[in-house]
Amino acid sequence: MTTSSPTAVLARIRATRPAPQPDGERCEMCAETIAEEHQHVVDVGARELMCVCRGCYLLFTDSHAALRYRAVPDRYLSFPDFALGRSEWEALQIPVGCAFFFHNSALDRTVAFYPGPAGATESDLDMAAWATVSRDPRVGLLADDVEALLVRAGDNGEAPHCWLVPIDACYGFVGGLRMLWRGFDGGTQARDFIDAFFTKVAERSVAQLP
Questions:
Q1: How many CA atoms lie within 13 A of 114 on its CB side?
Q2: CA-based, 20 to 30 A from 88: which of 112, 155, 159, 188?
């Protein structure tokens, strides 16, 4: 490993930073103070999101480098006319009305999670059913580990709505929903939270045609 590698740069940053103080949120890499809204990297091996400052985030933005950490991009795309109709959605056997899918590079396969009262729950993904969905070329736009295909089932038999979103948005959504969930169906607050989240996703997204 050369001294100019991201890991070596991070080691030098850590060595020159003062000891973290108890007040405020800190970068999990260098202990720099960070704002409430901040960026994240994924620890690929540990499957964990890390809160980081801008400087540490920029060390891991090279999507082609074989790094332990990967910066989470901030792009939102909507996928009109996606290859996921009602029958394809039902074949995936997701027990709730939304889910997110991403390629786990450590496992070298796509994984699926859905939200609920316990947080993010992994679904046993039927790979044959997923193969039907992944024939849409836009699936290839997702960056491994850090971007997800977010799906919300349509109402009244409509086709599901699909977006490419940052993986931290998915886990933030799941965490927020978990805090609000009440009873069997989540309750009014949880349903309002879901609607507000998907409205925000739609507003931020740029349409990506096939």
A1: 15
A2: 188
